[in-house]
Structure formats: structure tokens, C-alpha cells
Amino acid sequence: MDINNPLVMLVDDEVPFVETTTKRLERRNLNILQAFNGREALEQLKEHRNVDVIILDVKMPGMDGIETLQEIKKASPLSEVIMLTGHATVESAIEGMKLGAFDYLMKPCEIEQLVSKVEEATKKKREHEEKIREAKVREALSQHG
Ligand SMILES: [Mg+2]
Hints:
Blueprint: E1 7-11, H1 15-27, E2 31-35, H2 38-47, E3 53-57, H3 65-75, E4 80-85, H4 90-98, E5 103-106, H5 111-144
Parallel strand pairs: 1-2, 1-3, 3-4, 4-5
Helix pairs in contact: 2-3
Bound molecules: magnesium ion.
Magnesium ion binds near residues 12, 13, 14, 57 and 59.
């Protein structure tokens, strides 16, 4: 990609999965923030408003993926969310899509597949931001015209 490296937050209650996936994604020039539950994800988001993509586990103790998704969308509507699901929770992932998730992937997923989804989601998010910037410029110009 010819844009700045995506800032990605990885949210999953399986610590070894988060650690391994972080290393793999960092090797592909993605900047990674980690969270091990929904609350931590929301805390991270307060400090890092510019997160491009959030990779979100559906099944977590406490706040589950769907609840976390809804809070993420309130706090940072432009951040794109990719849900990670197992066979048992596909329904939840589909529910997530209805609630504004960008896409979902089945666990275990290939790292290349995850990277390509992250890049697609980053592109969408940044195009969206650009449109908002352009609209603001147009608005400002029309007020001065
Ligand atoms: Mg889990």
C-alpha cells in the first residue's frame, strides 16, 4: 500500500493467539495495539482515536464481540471491524455484519487472508475519511463564497 502503515487493534481473550498474530502482522508492516477483552479494547480506543482496523474475537468472556462491536461503533464510527469467529459463532459474526462490521473471518485463518482483509478495510476507512474532509472543505468554501 502506498499509504501510511495501517494501525490495527487486535482484540482476543486468547493471549498466545494475540502474541503470535501480533508478531506476524508486525512483520508485514502493520502497527498493532493489543487488547484481551472488550473493556481493554474500548480503553485503547480512547487513547488511539486513529485506529484504522479492529480485529475482534466474537467469543470472549465478559463483554462479547457483539457488545464490544456496538461500543466501538459508538466511540469510533470510522474504524473498521473484522470479526473473528469459530464455527459455533458464525451467527454472531453475521449479526456483527448487520451492526456495521466490515467483514468476518473463520478461525483459524491464514495470515495472508487476514492481512488482505486489513488492507481492504484500511482503504475503505481512509477513503471514507477523505470524503468527509472534502465535504468539510466544500462546506467551508460555500460559506465564504
Ligand atoms: Mg475467544
